[in-house]
């Protein structure tokens, strides 16, 4: 099983960073990889079990199910149920913690998944970039900057 872990310091208070990242349907708002997203069956984007169906700018497609979402813990967990990304058994979790001395936020995002050895390096890089760009994009949104594309 492959594992990816990314951490970052987000130059924004935790509540502002969380307001961006907790929205399970907002990827195109803050992430440079994603072109469009919708929650299937008209469910709210914070309902456990909802499925987001989204597309990348380069034609990739992913469906993910929200497994947990905690506003108290600033944490969410989800799984890929279908993807053009060659992974199986993919589960990811993101959590935020306040950095009390500076008013900034510490973010962690990690995933575990199965991947064929031939695809492992490329998938690892893609997942790492996905998490890193999400943190950067959330900070851009909080500060009113255009998300880097």
Automatic annotation (TrEMBL):
Protein name: Polyketide cyclase
Domain of life: Bacteria
InterPro entries associated with the record: Polyketide_cyclase/dehydratase, START-like_dom_sf
Coiled coil: none
Record-linked SUPFAM superfamilies: Bet v1-like
